[in-house]
Write a structure and sequence with these properties.
Pfam families: Staph_reg_Sar_Rot. The chain contains seven helices and three strands, in the order ααβααββααα. The protein has 152 residues and is mainly alpha-helical.
């Protein structure tokens, strides 16, 4: 690649990922509006529907969110009566998050969202699966490199 091409916006992987993520998130908006939740609240609920009653720290790691972002998000979900935060009785320094009945019941209304969103991408299911695998692999590789840097 020519030197001048290195700094072209369209040649940046970071920009392609950023732009695509914004557009995909926009696709979710009308469906999430029907549920009365934001995209970040949705992914938080997805994580809790997958594994409920988890420490806040574990949830933050799963979602790649720091406590400064996660705490207000959880407060809002608690205000909406979708989750409850409780001190861990065995370790009072730890706070656990669990779904309420309302939080569990919202899952039923969310089942159609993935299909409704991805039918708008004009990708075949196999193509989406490969893309998702590549993105997971890239994220994992970045984290492994970060782990190497912090050990040296």
């Amino acid at each position: 690649m020519e030197r001048d091409s290195l700094l072209l916006l369209d040649n940046q992987v970071c920009f392609a990922l950023y732009a695509c993520a914004r557009e995909v998130t926009k696709l979710y908006r009308p469906f999430l509006d029907e549920l009365g939740i934001t995209y970040t609240q949705y992914v938080t609920l997805l994580a809790l529907w997958e594994k409920d009653h988890v420490p806040v720290k574990t949830l933050g790691e799963r979602l790649y969110l720091d406590s400064g972002t996660l705490t207000p998000l959880l407060k809002k979900l608690e205000t909406m009566k979708l989750i409850v935060r409780e001190r861990d009785q065995a370790d009072e320094r730890s706070v656990n998050v669990r779904l309420t009945v309302e939080g569990h019941s919202l899952k039923e209304r969310a089942f159609l969202i993935p299909e409704r969103v991805f039918c708008q991408t004009d990708f075949l299911p196999e193509e989406l699966g490969k893309l998702r695998e590549q993105l997971h692999k890239m994220t994992q590789n970045i984290h492994e490199q970060a782990d190497c840097r912090t050990r040296t």
